[in-house]
Amino acid sequence: MGLTIAQKIIKSHLISGDLTVGSEVALKIDQTLTQDATGTMAYLEFETMGLKRVKTEKSVAYIDHNTLQSGFENADDHRYIQSVCKKHGIYFSRPGNGICHQVHLERFGIPGKTLIGSDSHTPTGGGIGMLAMGAGGLDVAVAMGGGAYYITMPKMYKVNLKGKLNPFVTAKDISLEILRILSVKGGVGAIIEWGGEGIKNLSVPERATITNMGTELGATTSIFPSDEVTKEFLKAQGREQDYVPLCSDPDASYDKIIEIDLNQLKPLIACPHSPDNIVTVESLKGVKVDQVCIGSCTNSSLLDMLKVASLLKGKTIDPTVSLSISPGSKQVLSMLADCGALSDILSSGARVLECACGPCIGMGFSPNSCGVSLRTFNRNFLGRSGTADASVYLVSPETAVAAALTGYITDPRLLGEMPEVKMPSFFKIDDSAIIEPASEEEAKDLEILRGPNIKPFPTSKPQLDTLSAELVLKVEDNITTDHIMPAGAKILPYRSNIPHLSQFCFAVCDETFSERAKALGESIIVGGSNYGQGSSREHAALVPMYLGVRAVITKSFARIHIANLINAGIMPLTFKNPDDYDKLNQGDKLELTNIFEGMDKGEIILKNNSTGDKITLVCDFTQRQKEILKAGGLLSYTKDEK
How many of the other CB atoms lie within 10 Å of CB of 250? Predict the structure, then answer.
């Protein structure tokens, strides 16, 4: 039987395991990326492991999240990361050079290579034919040191596109359509391959928009073939030598096949507060809009920006709307300036922000109170924008422009004729903001620069055979890492200071959580389905670990978060019978006994000493994961293995 694109890449990078779905596989990683909100911790972990030099083909550190320097904290983190990169063999992309996924696609992505990044939207690289996956910072640190990256072998889904997009219908609408079909849980445990005749008309930036949004499906990653479209993109970037053709075998087998007719697709919109709350734009006609944000790693390419500029040219945005535009990279911004498109954007009344994540991560440009904000981003979780009572909608750049011009949610097809936008044959190449590392010899004398906000990596406790602890917090379905460990301008500067960061843990759900958990010493959290969806931020595991959380019991977990919990030494357990969720209440005294025997059997009995109920919990761990938990986390396990 033939292989899918992902199976081919996995097979060629296999260190251990096989292609059996559900089994554990260890992969050789070619490239890594970090960003500054997660990177500081990843490099502290790298140092803690005593590693001297990265062993990947290419590792790049990007500064794109914490670029708002309202105090010394972010600047100190950037200085620390730059000094680590110089010493340990990592390329450093300076603040202002662009969003990690956009720049990596432009300058470093290679078809057929493996890439993991400490950012959940690393699958953007699938638009160029990479096996690109989001991971926790500790997994990235291990991979930088030459260690394997472990995943559960995913199922294979195929989405066949037929037909061609109509004017004002975009790749973002394709992304929203697959979210409508599958939901935010529908891709869990799967890799999604895109194919069919319809992909031939999709450029690499459009493909990258789709693979970027695949993260919101809960998928391990998404991937496109590497074809003539890929070759032309790499050629335009001056990297034609990196092109490798890559496609699935004609007799490849898939666990699920989905057909989407592009001819029938309409402009779509994700309503608050979930990326899969999808309706047509025309169904919301007349909803007043206060703010529009165009950019993020989803829709900040040169193609997106040229479309926006052409639609804004000669027009002025509605006086009741605030419009921000964030180009994805310095390359994009420079080319907009050179061709005059930037002037068209500025003349409309838009505000041009730095080439960074910005509003998407809650770093500035928050909406007004009770505001309606249309954003070309990938997430609209409650409070993520920085305004707790805002209503955030996800749209394409074209739909965003229509709202900015009219002041209301408006079907972009009512704007008239879509101006023709032609991509240049060659992009402007300027890598001056990417700093190369020192040679191994030069690196010996280099100093790592640390600021007072950078604290040591927190230590965890080895797992004992018995755990008696209080249920400190019970939460519902679809708890995101933004709920667990919020982002935003007030909190992100403390990403390298776990003790200070801990006071914000679960504040969205319960402002008393941090204080109560710390007072208990050890505790247990209970959640619903899809617990830990969203960002790859390992802080959502490290901070609960610091606060004494020893186990999290849910109906189901998101992929990256379950790995991060194990890495932090926290047991992720699931209900054998999901209805048992209702038998547990906050404040209950819980007890787990014979944990090690239960791990081997795959089931542990939970006794609720407050009610007398006994509940069966599933612990489907590999032997390696059992040893990590017993050691108290991946860092302790790695040290013990040396």
Answer: 6
Collapsing DSSP states into helix, strand and coil, what is residue 261?
strand
Q: Is the dihedral of CA 214, 169, 202, 310 positive or negative?
A: negative
Other C-beta atoms lying within 10 Å of the C-beta of residue 431: 16
How far apart CA 128 and CA 143 sit, in angstroms, is: 21
CA distance 548 to 182: 36
The per-residue b/e assignment along 13-25, b for 16 or more CB within 10 angstroms, e otherwise, is bbeebeeeeeebb
Alpha-carbon distance 416 to 414, whole Å? 5
Query: Tens digit of pLDDT for each residue in 452-511?
Result: 999 887 888 899 999 999 999 999 999 999 999 988 878 888 888 999 999 999 998 999
> What DSSP character marks residue 157?
E
- Among 83-97, 334-348, 433-447, 624-638, whose mean pLDDT is lowest? 624-638
Q: Which residues have CB under 8 Å from 416's CB, separation 6+?
A: none
Give residue 461's pLDDT. Answer: 86
CA-to-CA distance for 239 and 515, rounded, in angstroms? 53
- CA distance linking residue 528 with residue 74, whole number of Å: 35
Is residue 216 classed as helix, strand or coil in its secondary structure?
A: helix
Helices 204-213, 100-107: inter-axial angle, 10-degree rounding: 140
Q: What tokens were used for 568?
A: 């932090």
| pLDDT at residue 76 is higher than 70 | yes
> What element of type H or E holds 623?
helix 623-631
Scanning the structure block, which residue is given the tokens 């938990």? 629
Q: How many Cβ atoms from other residues are within 10 Å of residue 196's Cβ? A: 16
pTM, entire model: 0.93
Quick one: three-class SS letters along 438-505?
A: CCHHHHCCCCCCCCCCCCCCCCCCCCCCCEEEEEEEECCCCCEHHHHCCCCCCCHHHCCCHHHHHHHC
77 neighbors 455 (Cβ within 8 angstroms): no
Confirm if 363 and 66 have CB atoms less than 8 A apart: yes
Is the preceding peptide bond at 273 cis, omega within 30 degrees of 0? yes
Region for 326 from its dihedrals, namely left if φ exceeds 0, alpha if ψ lies in -120 to 50, beta otherwise: beta
Residue partners of 13: CB distance under 8 A and separation at least 6: 27, 28, 29, 30, 114, 131
Rounded distance between C-alpha atoms, residue 210 and residue 174, angstroms? 7
